[in-house]
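Annotated sample (chain length 256).
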Amino acid sequence: MKTFLFSLISILFFAFSLAAQERITDEAEARAIFEEVEERRNSIQSETAIMEMVITDNRGRTRSRTMQSWIKNDGDDTSSLIVFSAPGNVRGTGFLSVNEDGSTTQRLFLPSVGRIQTIGSSERGDRFMGSDFTYEDLGDQNPDDYDFEWLEEHDEIFLIRASKSDSDQYSYVKFEIIKETYALKTIHYFDENDNQIKRLEAEQFEEISDGLWSPAKMTMFDLREDRKTEISWSEREVNSTIEDWRFTERGLRRGI
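Output written by the structure step:
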């Protein structure tokens, strides 16, 4: 009996030691992996696409919306515009996000009132157009915004834990990054009590440019409210010419 217990304890200790060895508390190494993800995502100059959004509430009822998107990268600066085309009650609504010199500005155009609203810091946790994505979720994931805590290397993924000091929604997040392609597969969002409150899953990856694998579908799960929002991409076109005016208040008001 003592021999069995000793063997069991030895096995458990070995497993614990192995797990501990796999966890690397090197912020620089974790940051380097995340920066590779961002570098690949910013390797294209532009992208246009049609996006379909399906919102499912906790009773299984769905709402569908169609959007046109434009994205433009200029070095470390990124501009994106989303304009809703259907249904009629949201048609013409536009969302503009501009990241310039490490600072992000977000604006929302509501055609029903004919005005442009700047999204302030107190509104970053609000739902975007009734979906399970917040304005913060739609912002750029700049490595400089995170404090990286540790890294685990598994067979097919890197698992990275990071905190974001300026977030009112999340205490920390865990990123699952596919090792072969450096594509972001899953994001787990946690509150200050270590409860996972949301999860973002990416799937149907396609190589839209050399070395850049991007999902054709993403789903955000709100684990507290038992809701989800799916976004799928189609008619993608990369590195086409997009005029700069698209990412101005003029482009926001003009819509599609």
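Annotation: The chain has one domain: 25-254.
Annotation: Confidence is low (pLDDT under 50) at residues 2-21.
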